[in-house]
Amino acid sequence: MAERILIVEDENKIAGVLLDYLRQSGYEVHHLTRGDEVEPWLAHHPVDLVLLDLMLPGKSGLDVCKALRSNAPGQPAPAIIMVTARVEEIDRLLGLELGADDYICKPFSPREVVARVKAVLRRGTHAVAAPEGSPDGLQMDDAAWRATIEGHDLGLTAVEYQLLKVLSARPGRIFSREQLMDSMYQDERIVSDRTVDSHIKKLRRKIQERLPEQELIHSVYGLGYKFEPPQSG
């Protein structure tokens, strides 16, 4: 069954190009022009991903994003890619804080949009929103790209932060190296398995400096990695 995408874009020319490219890539695609149409439509037509323009009549893209992420926390929800001509950093940070999975800035190549859509859907980490806090005093601050344990900054790089966010959002789930690569690099660059292993090694070391008696990230031979905090009691 084809994955379903909703394009929310009030510029019909842009929407038409995206519809054509995404349909040619095998997706089932629908189109709305107003932000205030999104929630009522999605109530009867679930999708896998929403391609959401920032500036919309009726309701802004940021308000739509916030509403979609707050409607049913912890429940399956569509991935969200924000599309915007506003490149100010505050817009990017606010969108990520509200739960956007990725950003695309206008003007863009339709092929780039298709590549980003494929990467987000392959990632498969959008089904449950990342928790604000995780076991063992771990806190993730998306706005600052900062992870702390018991209030102590882990000093993570952007890639290490993204890896930890992906793994900790789904405790017990095994992520392949390919899935983790997609979370690390959203521009479809080619990297090796060793790159993932190197980042995981550094991430583990930084966590163990704060939690020397606990191992949170586990290797699963032949499959990949998983986040599994020790059982309490």
Describe this structure in words.
The chain is α/β, with parallel strands linked by helices and 233 residues long. It is built from eight helices and eleven strands. It has a five-stranded parallel sheet with strand order 2-1-3-4-5, with helices on both faces. The protein has a four-stranded antiparallel sheet with strand order 6-7-8-9, covered by helices on one side. Strand 6 and strand 7 (138-141) form a beta hairpin. The protein is elongated. 31% of the residues are buried. The model is unreliable at 125-133 (pLDDT under 50).
Radius of gyration: 18 Å
Portion of residues in beta strands equals 15-25%
The H-and-E topology, N to C, reads as EHEHEHEHEHEEEEHHHEE
Note poorly predicted spans: 125-133
> Based on CA inertia axes, which overall geometry fits?
elongated
Percent range of helical residues: 25-40%
DSSP helical segment count:
8
Query: How many strands, what sense, and barrel or not for the largest sheet?
Result: 5 strands, parallel
Mean pLDDT: 80
Strand order of the largest sheet: 2-1-3-4-5
Total beta strands? 11
What separation lies between the terminal Cα atoms? 44 Å
Structural class, by secondary structure, is alpha/beta
